[in-house]
Amino acid sequence: MGTDKMLMEKEGPLGWIIFNQPEKRNAVSQEMWKMIPGMVQELAEDDTIRVVILRGAGDKAFVAGADISQFKDRRRNMEDELEYRRIADQGQQSLLSLQKPLIAMIRGFCVGGGVGIATSCDIRIASDDARFGIPAARLGLGYHYRGVEKLLPLIGPSNILDIFFSARTDFSAEEALRMGLVNYVVPAAELESFTRQYALRIAGNAPLTLRSIKATVRELLLPPDRRDLAKLDKMLAECFNSEDYQEGVRAFSEKRRPVFKGR
């Protein structure tokens, strides 16, 4: 399934969503944003898919921000910006609401909106030649607080201000690792194989446990008075009452790998 600019692939338990505009370093257009929710929904509803991975086509960029060629016609003023934001927010929200593990495989440039997409993922794996930045101050645009809110627990206020004040687009992968923006940095030639093996390792674990811990982290990042602890208690009970829990205990005692079914 796919369009010219967005592709979706299924590979065993792995689902891939690919930003496919390499001639523009995979800059995201409105049309591309519109495709994301449908792709995410299909992968979410497919029980054979255990992990979803985002990547950019080619070896030059993950996502180099928004497609600036559309700014003159589609982001001329605040009214246009609100419409653009509505469409982009639907795409971002679909990524954020995915209950399955979501990985960003980052090769080359991850700039502007690319950072926003990467921080919507649970895990970020970067090649050693990846470069990061948010050059909002070079364009004079306002950066929405939701994007800053996603960055805050990952890298903290001082690093956020450094990124925005300098407007650099050449933060190295090692700098990103030091900040906490990425989880792993690997040689570029090994990026895809490392990411695939890491994702397959996750895919072999119990889906209900993964869903529960992902929800727990999300809830505990909220202020205490907004946390839905009842939902977390229910998800814990689902784990302990599941066939997968019985399988996990059996497999441990029998010294074999468990075969989880997500129920």
By secondary-structure content and strand pairing, the structural class works out as: alpha/beta
Considering DSSP H and I runs of 4 or more, what fraction of the residues is helical?
40-55%
CATH homologous superfamily grouping of the largest domain? 2-enoyl-CoA Hydratase, Chain A, domain 1
Q: Which class of the largest domain in CATH terms?
A: Alpha Beta
Shape: globular
CATH architecture of the largest domain: Alpha-Beta Complex
> What is the strand tally?
10
Strand line-up of the largest beta sheet? 1-2-3-5-7-10
The fraction of residues assigned to DSSP E strands is 15-25%
Q: In total, how many domains does the architecture comprise?
A: 2
Brief characterization of the structure:
The chain is an alpha/beta fold. The chain has 11 helices and 10 strands.
Report what the structure shows:
By secondary structure, the chain is α/β, with parallel strands linked by helices. It has 2 domains: 6-203, 2-enoyl-CoA Hydratase, Chain A, domain 1, CATH 3.90.226.10; 207-253. It is built from 11 helices and 10 strands. The strands form 2 sheets. Strands 1-2-3-5-7-10 form a 6-stranded mixed beta sheet, with helices on both faces. It has a 4-stranded mixed beta sheet with strand order 4-6-8-9. Helix 1 (30-45) packs parallel to helix 3 (78-97) and helix 9 packs antiparallel against helix 10. The model has no long low-confidence stretch (mean pLDDT 93).
Features:
single chain, 263 residues, 2-enoyl-CoA Hydratase, Chain A, domain 1
Fold topology:
Elements (H helix, E strand, L loop, with lengths): L5 E6 L2 E6 L10 H16 L5 E6 L4 E4 L6 H4 L3 H20 L4 E5 L2 E3 L1 H6 L4 E5 L3 E3 L2 H4 L5 H22 L4 E2 H7 L4 E3 L4 H13 L3 H14 L8 H12 L2 H11 L10
Parallel strand pairs: 2-3, 3-5, 4-6, 5-7, 6-8, 7-10
Antiparallel strand pairs: 1-2, 8-9
